[in-house]
Specification:
The protein is built from 4 helices and 20 strands. The protein has 335 residues and is mostly beta strands. Mean pLDDT is 88; it is low at 203-207.
Length: 335
């Protein structure tokens, strides 16, 4: 790689001067959806254009000093400032939003109700409905939705919508209420504490089946207060099914525009809801795309701005999203 780095250092300014080129570096060439082990000079462009639309001086050469190039479209590169966390009208997907009791998440997309045709705001249950299971009083239809979210300074005066529909989130386990189980645990604790006085056993019961989505929709206070153009991305151009190896990207409140590759589908995951509760999610999609807290609710897309999922969870290494068609069918909405 050292020799390639020296080549790039010598050639970078004449490459950067070409149309749409926003960066140049060293990496491994991608062929189709597969990253190969062939070292190449990566030329980052804001937008790919057909060769016939470019002059000879604007074309990226196939090779530089005998090393193959790989042109990668990444859009416009900008500072990750606080624009996404500000009050914006009309508000657009990719910006901060949240239930009035929630810190902040991401406005995912504008969808249409299948029955009324009205535009609705799509995000996660845990962003628009406070992670409710529908029986716990954490949220109710009609609750105010703020843009920006409360963590980003949103107040009741910044109400942009009202909660209209959500899919309940089922926790993975709950304290046991069975009298027989509780009698057993009292006896077990007496035995254990004769040996380990500081230990206390508890029994939990598993609740319901796995979740398949974390989603909700809200009705904007008026139609012109939102736009369907995703911040830094543009309009959604249809949808498709996530497949292993598929390149994906999202526009989120916290980490902005990030990209990755689908690493697994059909996954069942245990997800931590808070310090005390977990939930199981089945038929999920796992990707190496970067995300952080506050990116939840982001629409996940692939080439051609086609929607593939709704981001809801992740770790330091992976990001997890629901299949978009499942989300739309559960909520009875369309893109």
């Amino acid at each position: 790689m050292d020799s390639l780095l020296r080549i790039v250092e010598r050639a970078k300014w004449r490459i950067l001067g070409r149309k749409n080129v926003v960066g140049v570096g060293v990496g491994y060439k991608e062929v189709g959806l597969r990253r190969t082990e062939q070292p190449s000079i990566i030329v980052f462009v804001s937008k790919k254009e057909a060769p016939e639309n470019l002059s000879r001086e604007e074309l990226v050469p196939f090779k530089i000093n005998g090393v193959e190039t790989d042109v990668v479209e990444i859009g416009e590169v900008r500072l990750l400032d606080s624009e996404r966390t500000k009050l914006v009208r009309p508000a657009q997907p990719g910006l901060s939003i949240g239930h009035y009791k929630v810190s902040a998440g991401t406005f995912g997309a504008v969808v249409k109700d299948r029955h009324t045709g009205e535009p609705l705001i799509l995000s996660n249950n845990h962003i628009l409905a406070n992670a409710t299971n529908g029986r716990d009083g954490r949220a109710a239809v009609g609750d105010p939705i703020l843009q920006p979210g409360e963590y980003d300074g949103g107040t009741r005066q910044d109400r942009i919508a009202t909660l209209v529909r959500f899919i309940p989130l089922q926790k993975g386990e709950a304290p046991a209420t069975c009298p027989v189980a509780n009698a057993f645990i009292r006896w077990a604790n007496m035995v254990v504490q004769t040996i380990r006085p500081n230990y206390n056993l508890r029994i939990f019961k598993r609740e319901g089946s796995s979740n398949v989505v974390d989603c909700a929709v809200a009705r904007p206070v008026r139609a012109d207060i939102i736009t369907d153009e995703i911040y830094g991305v543009g309009k959604v151009q249809g949808k498709t099914i996530a497949r292993p190896g598929m390149p994906v990207f999202k526009s989120g409140r916290t980490t902005g525009l990030t990209r990755g590759v689908v690493t697994a589908v059909g996954a069942t995951m245990e997800v931590k809801l808070d310090n005390e509760n977990t939930a199981y999610f089945s038929d999920q999609v796992v990707t190496d795309m970067k995300s952080q807290g506050g990116d939840s609710g982001s629409l996940v897309l692939t080439e051609g701005n086609r929607a593939v999922g709704l981001l809801f969870a992740g770790s330091d290494k992976v990001t997890i999203f629901n299949h978009i068609q499942t989300v739309l069918d559960k909520l009875e909405v369309d893109l």
